[in-house]
Amino acid sequence: MRVTKKSLALSLGVASVLTVAACAPSTSDTGGGQAETSAAAEEAPEAEPINIGIITSTTGPLAAYGETYVDGFEAGLDYATDGTGEVGGAELVVEFQDDGGDTDRAVTQARDLIGQGYTIIGGTASSGIALSLAEQAEQNEVLYVSGPAATDALSGINDYTFRSGRQSLQDVATAGSFVDVEGQEVLVLAQDNAFGQGNLAAVQGVLGGKGAEVTSVMVPEDVTEFTPFAAQVRDAAPTMVFVAWAGATSGAMWQALDQQGVLDDITVVTGLGDASTFGAYGAASEKIDFLNHYFPGATDNEVNAAMIEHVEAAGGTPDLFTPDGFVAAQMIVHAIEEAGGANDVDAMIAALEGWSFDGPKGSYTIRESDHALIQPMFQTRLVSDGAGGWAPELVAEVAGEDVAPPEAAAQ
Fold it and tell me: What are 95's strand-pairing partners?
């Protein structure tokens, strides 16, 4: 079921027919009772539609992430409402907005939706946009369920903001599951920009907190020759290297690490991205340990199977951030159900705080204190797919409790 006004209206019509049929009197009823029942059914007011605004990128640099998130959201809404697209007889009308990766545009869209009376907003893969939408949620007292945005700053930012994906601290904690880091040197190899510095800070906080000695090799963004930096890493001889890298220079960086023997002698861990990145590591692929948020074969449970089936039936391909959309839909439906509608935002917040549920990755819990989403993570590796490419293979599941981020301080 594609979640559009048109398809949901159709679902509502079918559901209405079923409801009338279910309420019809039996043949044993008297004529008068039948007339009264029919009249009551005709006079019963129709539940007002519930509007949900989803703001994410379907164009721009994060378009691929946004598309898989939307696929997951539609599958999750179908699953959570048993295919009706309704909660308590009320039609769920989803308005998708394309933020194009632009913060100002996303904020304008959020304000417009809120101005129309929307009390539920979701989405975005951009951490910067998510933080701005969280601010709008607090100012306007509406529920906000973020998408794949991984910034740790969302957890505990305010009472109105929740997340449907993982956060950076969970990535780093998963990296630490590959070795016993206590008393060992962990070296961070990263680009010297906000992304790299953020990852370094997370490693210092999480793995440093577990007794690791954290060092770093930070590479200027304009560098194209990586041999000297790879040699620095090799000569430091750490127990583990955590690589935080993004962009077009990834292939050359991994090649340099391989040529300098780093991948042969040291445990090197990095995050496994979406399917489009599986070929980025070249000959180094089988020498890298990957932490992972999700790939379709990572879990074997009923919810994951239902999500994959729905997405594929709609012509999509499940990928890294498909579960984030699915879980967002589960959370929103649960909040509406428990609150008796979307008008009582405080009741929706209370319904989500502390809620545990089964999702595509397994068991999830929304931590009441800061709204962090506790969830399993995965150790994976890349193996040859037999056709000249690479495919992920599960090494181990890491329990959500073992990689739970530190509780965020109240802001």
Answer: 53
